[in-house]
Amino acid sequence: MNQFAAQSFEAIRQQAEAGNAAAQCYLGICYQTGQAVQQDYVEAVKWLRRSAEQNDAAAQCYLGMCYQAGLGVPQELREGARWYREAAEQGDPAAQFNLGVCYETGQGVLVDMTEALKWYHAAADRGEPQAQFNLGVFYENGEAVPQDFGEAVKWYKLAAEQEVAPAQCNLGLCYQTGRGVWQSDSEAVKWFCRAAKQGDKTAQHNLGLYYASLEGRTLEGEGEATGEVPAE
Fold it and tell me: Is the distance from CB of 65 to CB of 80 less than 8 angstroms?
């Protein structure tokens, strides 16, 4: 899409009207997001559909989102999943992740954890951070795959390094408990802090508990050194 960044909106529209699938997709995204033009979901769907019907994977994914959310078209979860599949089978990581979510939650398709795992894996292998996090959860819980804490840590770390806060929190818990990795309070605190700074409530809670326990151990140690017993 960077090819259109330096072009005027009118120039892009002309290319879209001439049948350029990439320009049609870009125009659809502009209307969907309100970028350089007044937001218009119906117009967005019009251009995304033209592009999607020319097999543009990005347009297919965005069109799936429109159907899933009911933006510019009546909400049709099955149609949303259909367009996600069209894009996913072309290797679009966002569509692969979205299709995985559909299978995990039963949106437009029957719940199928094995299919969800398959599409999360495909997206995660292409660097999609949310898919990497979900894949880590599957491995940690043994969902549709044998439980493997080491594999969970691997995927949590990849997602955490892309600033996915829940992955950072879960990675911190793995370090805190020694699940799938050497136990390390310092590493646990590092990842809890990174997640907490993004507003992750669980990480903030875990960080509070860690510091409270640290303070408790310090006070206990001081009491032993002086022979004093902490007040009830």
Answer: yes
